[in-house]
Amino acid sequence: MANLVDDIIENILLRLPVKFLLRLRCVCKAWRALISDSKFAEMHYRQPQTQARSRVLISSPGRLIQSIDPDSSGNEFDNNGVVNIDYPILESSNSVFQILDSCNGLLCVVDSFNNPSLWNPSTRQFNPLPNPRLLQNTEILYGFTYDYSSGDYKILRLAYGSRDMVKTDIDFAFKTEIDVFELKTNRWRRVRETHFSRPALKEGTFYKRAFYWVAWRLLEGCEDVSRMIVSFNLKEKKFKEVELPSQVGTINLKVIDGYLFAIYHDIHGAFTKMWIMDETAGKDSWTIFGNWPLLPCWFANCLKNGGEVLIVNIKKSKLILYDFKTKTPKHIMFYGDLRSSIPVLYTETLVSPHSINERNEDI
Q1: In terms of CB atoms within 10 Å, which end of the chain has fewer, N or C?
Q2: Between 171 and 346, where is the model more confident?
Q3: Cβ within 8 Å of residue 317, ≥6 positions away
């Protein structure tokens, strides 16, 4: 009978939002132990009600961070749904940070010294990660994902020669090496294979266990360059090259509703052209998806477990949450300057940024 009651309590708690669960830890030791358990956090995240609870995190210069509920009907006199959050690192010399990506409620962030950390803004848990040695005159591109085959969170670090090295050591400048961090072991490991190219942008995305990014490559027999897409598969430890749908303009890669998109922004910002990757017949190709009359804007970030996309209209300083499944936009109330802010879309979860073999004792 006691086990039956415990099961009922657990099923009820699994349906509650994170903010209520954090308060209910104080009810008794048994509830605290249950809510702090990593298996409970995983089951809670898999609940359909939990997956719908997305929030927008906006970081501004300094340490001011706001977390906004997109479903809040807030206006300039009503700030319900807006929560101010302090970034965990307090040292003034290291107060600048960049949010790289979100995955299952965890944010991968790097500070001004390129030190990576994992952070759950819902529980305020923070885990500074070890940082592998980096050669001088080297630039970095990070990728962050959850590897379902191994049940582990992983970070990819692409290291390549700085832009200044293009003039002095072109071979070093066009050589990309990869390190992989595994949260279970809390260690980095170097991938043996290298790719002779350099990322064209400081961003990439994971798609089907592979990390994709746009890169520059040297053309044979000359010092001219062209662009392509490079991917690295976590399981096979292999690189693959994919042609871009266009060599004109800035191309960003995003995963939306389970598909890989190449997004092109017109130089005037008048529209956004999109291609979707077609993997039929065993060959990667691109199919035009459509033009977007969204005025000057850019795709800030997407939720990997759904079709929601965060869109920023810089000209009008507006945030739009667009649902690709229902094809409906949702305007998010934000009163600030988006030109100096970094908006990120994430999900409220109890997932710990520490090893998933550990308990969430500090939440």
Answers
A1: N
A2: 346
A3: 334, 336, 337, 338, 339
Integer CA distances (angstroms), 6 to 11, 171, 270, 329, in order: 9, 62, 57, 41
Cβ-based burial of 37 (10 A; exposed 0-12, middle 13-18, buried ≥19)? middle
Q: For residue 138, what are the CA distances in angstroms to 53, 169, 213, 277? A: 39, 12, 18, 31
- Residue 40, sorted as left (phi over 0), alpha (psi -120 to 50) or beta, turns out to be alpha
* Side-chain half-sphere CA neighbours of 165 within 13 A: 16
Tokens of 299: 């795709």
For 3-151, list the strands marked E by DSSP. Answer: 54-59, 64-68, 82-86, 97-103, 106-111, 116-120, 125-128, 138-147
pLDDT for 141-171, tens place per residue?
A: 999 999 888 889 999 999 887 765 555 566 6
**Entry pTM:** 0.84
What one-character DSSP code corresponds to residue 349? -
User: Hey, is 169 helix, strand or coil?
Assistant: coil
**pLDDT of 82 above 50:** yes
Helices (H), the chain: 2-13, 18-24, 29-35, 38-46, 48-51, 165-168, 170-173
Cβ contact 235:220 at 8 Å = no
The pLDDT of residue 1 = 42
- Tokens 């499944």 map to which residue? 325
Using the predicted structure, report yes or no on whether residue 312 has a pLDDT greater than 50.
yes
